[in-house]
Fold these 2 entries.
Entry 1:
Amino acid sequence: MSLFRDLKRIYRDGWKLVWRNPFVSLASIIIITLSLFLISFTLVFYGVLDNSLAKIEQRVDVKFYLLPDTPKPELEKFVSQIKTFKGIDKVRIITKEEALTNFLKRYEKDQLIRRSIDELGENPLGPSVSVRAKDPHIYGKIVEEVNKRIVPDFPYLDHVNYRDNSYIIERLNLFSSVARKISYALIAFFSALAVFIVLIFMGLVIYSAKTEIWVKRLIGAENRYISGPFAVAGIIYGFFSAFIVVATVVPVSSWVGKLTQSFFGDMNPAVYVHNNLIPLTVFTFSTGMMLGYLASMFVVRRYLKK
Amino acid sequence: MIQFEEVSKRYGKSFYALKDVSFHISEKEFVLVTGSSGSGKTTILKLLIAEEKPTKGKVSFYGLNVHNLRHSDLPRYRQKLGVVFQDYRLIPDKTVKENISFVMEMLGAKDSDIRESVRNVLNIVRLRGKEKRYPHQLSGGEQQRLAIARAIVNEPDIILVDEPTASLDKENSKLVLDILKKIHELGTTVILFTHKQLKVSHAHTLTLQDGKLMHDSYTKEH
């Protein structure tokens, strides 16, 4: 018995199942398409939310303000020590001069402050060190480590803005953690719902072919001849459904992106989809075909066990 | 070839479709299993194709207990049988040719062998020229003949035919019976289940009533 010949026949019978039952095939494609839309848009939503949160988190940092007379070697030593800590993403020095420039820019319309600076005649600001962590949850630990390991031998630390911002940082951490958990739950829920809908519908589709299954069993067909064509049909339905989803996700996400531009800013759905089009396409096609295949096989197996 | 030894089949708590039925069928016989509706004919058919299991007794095929076969061995056993169901059970979205050829495809036959076999059986059942039609485009008699063609295409050891003339007129009934006789002449054991009184010379007749075997023409009367 030639395996290639068997596969060819199973593939051919699968196609026949699809195009000889056009209404059933169309209905199956619609159902799988709707399910894929559910999954895909939930994932895009999660992707956009995750990226937006990541962008906000990236803006969070901790600043160590140093005294104006901090010697440069001490400043550099301070920075190099911080760089040895675990979880540090970026460390940036803001020089006294930069600090003054930024300060004057922030208060350029405030004449009183500008006059006060002019009267001082010198730069009252000291350098600062901005530290960004890979994980915003560890800023507290970083400050603790600095206080424990560096500050005892470093008399030039003026103050740390972590205490002022810790409430905001913690609220942000809490919000992003909760938002991500809700997103995971939504993904899981909608994925399960999508799979459930497809299973129920494929059950109806295959029920309508139960005569064929019954006859094949009673004439002695091996299981692969009975289930194979349905598996092929399921994969074909999944493929066409994925095609529809991928073809519509770009214009739909553009439309949604325009509506949500002010909220999500740069990372709106259109941008996310554009940047991740290839992985999203691969994911949609593989999910669609897998969904069609597994649903068909799961339902047909029940008839084969009887 | 086929042996029923004290076979009983009970449905529910007390209804016996078959009770202590014993008979033997040899190769190349033409067997008529007769009896009125509810006499147990279809139950015998179902036991033979292992769609049902006996409550008591043993059904053997060439010495093998059919109902002790593993689930995975059932397809190979069923491939030795050709079955024609009372309601034909044709596959509606396959053409005449496809309804016949898929049986041989299940066995892994080559396309050239399938083509030849399909041509031969279509000749036997007189459906040449209707290969591309679908079952719903055939008459009742033609559907019956198509069902027979499907049952014989892989040259089974036995063909089991359930009420082949039940819904046919006299002419079509005769045609179907002639086809079955021809198949028998070619060397296939034919077991025909019918409530009608059919005239088939040299046939082995088993007569059932209320689940019991009343008469076996090859043994002493029961």
Note: Chain A has a mean pLDDT of 85.
Entry 2:
Amino acid sequence: MTPVSGPLGDWLPVERVSADEPRFRMRFGEHHIGNPMIRAVHGGVSAAVIEAVAQAAARHELGEAVDVELVSSSIDYLRVTKDTDLHAKAVTARTGRRLAFVDVWCWQDDEDTPVVRGTCTLRIQAAT
Amino acid sequence: MSGHKSSLLADRTGRRTGSTGTPASTADQKAKPRPHLAQLFFSAKHPLLSAFHFEFIRTDRDHLATRLEAPEQFVADETRGELHTGFHTLILDTVMGGTVLGSLEQPQPIATIKLTTQHCGRILVGQTIVCAGALQGVRNGVAYVHGEVRTEPGDELIATAVGTFMIGTRAVPLDGSSPGPSMGLRR
């Protein structure tokens, strides 16, 4: 399952890049630019990537028998996000019966130099 | 989620403003209105924001409210026609940042430091929504903003957010050139 499905998958092309680990990449597009003067990616785009990655990581871990829905997210913008691809990895802090808590780290050039990080709370329900 | 009416759209008398914004005095009506910086920044030339077709319904110094139609390209669940929650965060970051821009005496670059969003509901494609921001205060160059997204009609709460923004960032263009004092905004 791709992290972002439906028409949003064209606008926000996020793909899983590792079968073993919850690692993802968003391919940069011109429509992601938020500040044209410094060609920085819009903060809302990074936030959307983090929410999509957290949801995809939880879905992958829990399987298709359940549905996971975003409850909240908290995003920290550590550095300017440049006009290149954005990489992300998810770390599940806890998965309970009803809730999951997933942290997501994003970087561009160097994994040790994150540009955005986020914490997401997700509601787990039986798939409809 | 419903039941709690929006406070971000009401002016100081508690009235909700219409499509022309806050009622202006006779003197204000004679003077040429100063465009809100967000109206300049959310221009048709912006690579991302031009796709949203924001209609400005409140442009006070400390408040910004916009109306828009939920665009199809953010649909993540085609069966239900629901937009991804990332759309909530995207427009909240935009409008809350625009609220900060509108409060500035002079155009300055701003950057989001932190954005916390509660996703209370979901938006359906084509639905009309109102996204509003209210500046809560500024301290040491950091602006604190509340924001929310509601449906219209229905006034159903979709998302609430708290954002902090750095005013006057030191960010320079990635090619090393100067961003200039105008931030690319043309009056």
Note: The two ends of chain B are 40 Å apart (CA to CA).
